[in-house]
Design a protein that fits this description.
heterodimer, A: TIM Barrel, 8-stranded parallel β-barrel, 11 helices, about 45% helix, B: alpha/beta, TIM Barrel, 10-stranded parallel beta sheet, two-stranded antiparallel ribbon
């Protein structure tokens, strides 16, 4: 498992500063850049930024932030997590990520998804009723663009292309592209069909229940005759010096965020006991470095994934605690997981 | 609009054109990284603004301008980062707002842009727009984009994108938005539009006597007054190259400019360049090619005649060697800029 990769993911949640006030959006974005620079220094493999269009998140256009990170880092790979392809234009997405790839000497990764939030649909004039066809057609076009040759395509969700050559070209000839999947078997099969690597968003419950999706991915790839890449997983969590500190820093902000989203989705407010159970047996990787490392090692070996990304912000956790979480992830958690899995 | 204390700004403008190095063409990716180096170099040489265009054709790497500027933002500290031009007509104003509020954050408040209709038309079919809607696309999108910048909550409807109801965008831009100029190629209608919005005017003067734009400048100032807006700056963008001597600049530029303009002449149906026309452009036209002294005198003269507050030199042209680009940037910042200011200070104040 020595080739296991570790990432950090964020949606650029607007944090509190150390006096308890929310920072500006601009400061929240620069905070993400600083955290990515620290993660690069510490040898974390990937930073992934998710696209959102909600007031609590500062990142609506991951690529522009990733480009800023590119200049200040040298090794860390620069990913989205996810790019909401359904409500974007595949040509623009390709151009933007090919540009990030150039600016970072080939470190860009686009992770395409349908998004778990729906704000981008009305904002950009799409109908949620077209959820499936939008993603289906756009990933088909994106897969063609990945060949970096003139593209001819027609469909129902954007203007047709006739021998359209799209620039800039990448140096490797192929942009690293994953598909992020939340739990739809159809999405897993589609990912295998295109021979793209699969990133599982496991944001609640026991990670083991995603085992069948990984089997499905491998079987589908074998049937299609495409490559089954190492599967990745991303889950939320937080690290502090002790278990108690991690939970106490994380919980109040998490509850605010979770209840706000819950109100939109018809969930009841989260109770502390549910939170504790999720930390204990579910998909919240919260605690001291050792606790989090043990939990990651268990999930990784259970599912046989090749990459683990920790979503290290979920609410307005304060700036200094976030930096400390990044530091502990890089200096302690990653080496401990590697040790636990036998180096 | 904030103006620097010296009142005259000098900037660089690139269209992301592929450079060469010892005769070898750089890849798209190498050119993009070169552009970040050039932004750094421009800042070190003391220039005020680094701007990038937006193009969708082979040999141009500037299809994702805000992303490129995002990388330049963390490579620099003071230089302002802009566009010339952003093709508003084929962009979504909402995405554009996100891109530039993010760039402004990453650069700690140094983002600006020039909006235009573009002289190249590739983006229309690529993104599914009809050239027949050229005017309406720009008009409606400018209306929306300025509302998004000026109002925190926007309700809007039009024909060129989906309507918005009480929409707030995140991340928010700084209050009032970022400096937004209107790029104009020669249409009086566009000049009046810039004045109507009270936005600064950027003249793209890429051929012929720049002084013929005096009427546009005059029209702009009169229109600003009529619309009840304060005076706004006027800038100009032109092509050129600064080298150590006139001869070197003139011969280097000819070598790379001539094939580009020949191809363009073919495509757009105007006269192919010849040496006589080239020399006329150098003498009294819109090419700013020469030694620092020659280029400074020419910029100062035009700035005086057109009452300019800003001049951007488009310094890249297809396959121009990276060394020549670097030298041009150095000389523009270190020698031309101070000399232009010296020449302008000697004259009665023009601002």
């Amino acid at each position: 498992m020595s080739d296991l990769e570790f990432g950090l993911d964020t949606f650029g949640d607007v944090p509190e500063d150390d006096t308890g006030r929310p920072t500006s959006y601009a400061a929240a974005i620069r905070q993400v850049v600083d955290e990515a620079v620290l993660a690069d220094d510490l040898g974390v493999d990937v930073i992934a930024l998710g696209e959102h269009h909600r007031p609590e998140y500062s990142v609506s256009t991951p690529e522009t932030v990733l480009a800023g990170i590119a200049t200040r880092t040298s090794r860390i790979r620069l990913a989205s997590g996810v790019t909401v392809l359904s409500s974007d234009d595949p040509v623009r997405v390709f151009q933007r990520f090919a540009t990030v790839d150039a600016l970072s000497n080939g470190r860009a990764e686009v992770i395409l998804g349908r998004g778990s939030f729906t704000e981008s649909f009305p904002l950009f004039g799409y109908d949620l009723a077209d959820y499936d066809v939008l993603f289906e057609e756009k990933i088909e076009l994106f897969a063609k663009l990945l060949d970096e040759k003139p593209v001819t395509w027609s469909g129902t969700v954007r203007a047709p292309l006739q021998d359209a050559d799209v620039f800039p070209k990448t140096e490797s000839g192929r942009l690293t592209t994953w598909v992020g999947v939340g739990g739809s078997p159809q999405s897993v099969i589609r990912t295998a069909h295109y021979g793209l690597p699969l990133m599982l968003a496991i944001i609640g419950g026991q990670p083991g229940r995603f085992g069948p999706y990984i089997d499905l991915y491998r079987r589908a790839a074998a049937e299609f005759g495409t490559t089954a890449h190492p599967v990745g997983m991303h889950s939320p969590g937080f690290i502090a010096d002790t278990d108690e500190a991690a939970k106490e820093i994380f919980w109040p902000h998490y509850k605010v965020m979770r209840d706000r989203i819950g109100a939109l989705r018809g969930w009841p407010p989260i109770r502390r006991a549910e939170f504790d159970a999720e930390v204990e047996h579910g998909s919240l990787y919260i605690g001291s470095p050792e606790t989090v490392a043990r939990k990651i090692a268990a999930a990784v070996s259970d599912l046989g994934v090749g990459r683990f990304d920790l979503i290290y912000t979920a609410g307005a956790q304060p700036v200094s605690a976030r930096m400390r979480a990044v530091e502990l992830y890089g200096t302690k958690v990653i080496p401990m997981v590697r040790d636990l899995l036998g180096g | 609009m904030t103006m620097t204390t010296h009142g005259f700004e000098l900037g660089l403008n690139s269209f992301g054109e592929v450079a060469t190095d010892g005769g070898r063409k750089l890849s798209d990716a190498e050119t993009l990284r070169l552009l970040v180096d050039e932004a750094r170099r421009a800042e070190a040489a003391g220039l005020d603004v680094f701007s990038v265009g937006e193009h969708y054709r082979e040999g141009h790497t500037d299809s994702a301008t805000p992303v490129l500027l995002g990388a330049a933002a963390t490579a620099t500290e003071r230089i302002r980062l802009g566009t010339s031009v952003t093709v508003l007509s084929t962009n979504d104003p909402v995405r554009l707002y996100h891109d530039f509020s993010t760039l402004d954050a990453v650069s700690s408040g140094r983002a600006q842009l020039v909006l235009g209709r573009a002289s190249a038309t590739e983006s229309f079919p690529l993104f599914g727009y009809d050239l027949a809607d050229y005017e309406r696309l720009f008009e409606e999108k400018l209306d929306l984009f300025m509302r998004l910048q000026r109002d925190e909550k926007v309700t809007w409807s039009g024909t060129v994108r989906t309507p918005l109801t009480d929409q707030r965008l995140h991340p928010r831009m700084r209050p009032g938005g970022i400096p937004t100029w209107i790029g104009v190629g020669g249409s009086p209608q566009s000049v009046i539009r810039a004045a109507r919005y009270g936005l600064p005017l950027m003249l793209a003067i890429i051929g012929g006597r720049p002084q013929r734009f005096a009427g546009h400048v005059d029209l702009y100032h009169r229109a600003l007054k009529q619309f009840g807006h304060e005076t706004q700056p006027v800038g100009m963008h032109s092509l050129g190259l600064v080298a150590d001597t006139d001869d070197e600049a003139v011969e280097t530029w000819w070598q790379y400019w001539q094939p580009v303009v020949t191809a363009l002449a073919d495509e757009r149906g105007f006269y192919a360049p010849n040496r006589r026309r080239y020399e006329a452009e150098l003498d009294h036209g819109a090419l700013f090619v020469g030694s620092p002294e020659t280029v400074a005198r020419k910029i100062a003269a035009v700035a005086e005649d057109l009452h300019l507050n800003r001049f951007d030199l488009k310094y890249d042209i297809m396959h121009l060697p990276r060394d020549a680009r670097a030298r041009s940037i150095e000389l523009l910042g270190r020698e031309v800029a101070p000399r232009v200011r010296e020449l302008l200070d000697r004259e009665p104040s023009h601002v």
